[in-house]
TrEMBL record:
Subcellular location: Nucleus
One Pfam entry name: Hormone_recep
UniProt lineage: Eukaryota, Metazoa, Ecdysozoa, Nematoda, Chromadorea
InterPro entries associated with the record: Nhr-150, NHR-like_dom_sf, Nucl_hrmn_rcpt_lig-bd, Znf_hrmn_rcpt, Znf_NHR/GATA
Protein name: Nuclear receptor domain-containing protein
Length: 368
């Protein structure tokens, strides 16, 4: 079923320059960036009522619909420099470095304005996270200290907590603005990121060690035994429940994480750049609960930086636009998994499974 044009609302539309539009709007978009006209300004107030929007407003609708000037022709540097500098079309991006003075207030930082629609050719932020992530793999390998089929739920809580803190240290090296946030905002960011990272890193580790994982459970009996031990050995004394009851209550969560999350994510065959881009977008989510407006603005701006860098990464490799969309879709998949994660925490608490205090804070995060 065809969708309507996201610029003018026409019934027939198809992909053009990265957006879903009709052919007329696509032709207008192409002409606009081929034109040598300059000094374009909005004339809607001087036009007749019910007439079409002016060129400036129409091109803005094209950009809002996702149409990319870079796709009109390969070399757009000259035109990109002449992009309209309207405040409401720009993202304010902080550019201070870790060498900035510690007494500098957030409001006194240097800022640059970067058009949201422009594809970034600089992938330095994602690349540096990938490099730092590779550096901490030795530390991550020490998180469990035993085979993963032998760990308990509580041990997984502790390992995940430490893993999140390792990832936070990596992100802080690349984005020193985090250091200036209040303790409340930092803790809220961590609590919001905790379940997202637990789900994503499980898929990353599963893909990396798939053969090893599959060797743990060669039969359904092995699998059931692992699930039973995972929860029963984390239950408080005198609160044990029957193995069949453990399977009835908890096994569906394991099945969901494996078949609805880990395997679909692994099926996308992401590389390190794509995985770290998803991790950064999950961390810098302006929709996190219980963060200040300042923190939400920072998250919004940094997330847009990551989006631009990821789009530029794909553009440099002539990757189809659909790959970019599929990568962003993982965030929606993780959001669904997060709801299941929160549900499992509540079920664990009701069945006397020993969970870490930080997990309890996550349960109550939306009730603060």
């Amino acid at each position: 079923m065809s969708t309507s044009c996201r610029v003018c609302g026409a019934a027939d539309s198809e992909p053009h320059f990265g957006g879903i539009t009709c052919r007329a709007c696509a032709a207008f978009f192409r002409r606009y960036f081929h034109s040598k006209k300059s000094g374009i300004s909005c004339t809607c107030e001087t036009r007749f009522q019910n007439s079409h929007p002016c060129r400036e407003c129409r091109i803005q609708k094209c950009l809002d619909a996702g149409m990319n000037p870079e796709k009109v022709q390969h070399k757009r540097e000259k035109h990109l420099q002449k992009a309209p500098k309207q405040q409401n079309d720009m993202e304010v991006i902080e550019v201070t470095s870790s060498s900035s003075s510690g007494s500098q207030s957030p409001s006194s930082h240097s800022f640059i304005l970067i058009p949201f629609q422009i594809t970034s050719r600089d992938k330095s932020n994602i690349s540096r996270v990938v490099s730092r992530w590779a550096d901490v793999q030795g530390k991550r390998s020490m998180l469990y200290g035993k085979r993963l089929d032998e760990v308990t739920y509580y041990e997984t809580c502790l390992a995940t907590k430490n893993d999140v803190e390792i990832m936070l240290s990596v992100i802080e090296m690349i984005f020193p603005q985090l250091i200036e946030l209040s303790t409340w905002d930092k803790n809220s960011l961590l609590r919001n990121f905790y379940p997202k990272w637990a789900l994503l890193v499980a898929a990353i580790d599963f893909e990396r060690n798939r053969a090893v994982f599959e060797g743990y459970c060669t039969t359904i009996v092995d699998y059931y035994g692992m699930v039973i031990k995972f929860y029963s050995q984390s239950m408080y004394d005198n609160c044990q429940i029957e193995p069949n009851e453990i399977l009835r209550i908890f096994e569906p969560y394991h099945r969901y994480y494996a078949f609805d999350l880990a395997l679909p994510i692994c099926g996308k065959d992401f590389n390190a750049v794509e995985y770290m881009a998803v991790a950064l977008m999950a961390f810098f989510d302006g929709a996190h609960t219980n963060i200040s407006s300042e923190c939400a603005d920072l998250c919004h701006n940094v997330k847009n930086i990551v989006l631009r860098e990821l789009r530029g990464y794909y553009a440099d490799r002539n990757v189809e636009e659909m790959r970019f969309i599929e990568t962003i879709d993982v965030l929606q998949l993780m959001q669904k998994g997060e709801s299941k994660f929160q549900e499992e925490l509540l079920v664990c608490e009701m069945n006397n499974v020993h969970i870490h205090d930080d997990y309890r804070l996550m349960i109550r995060e939306h009730n603060y």
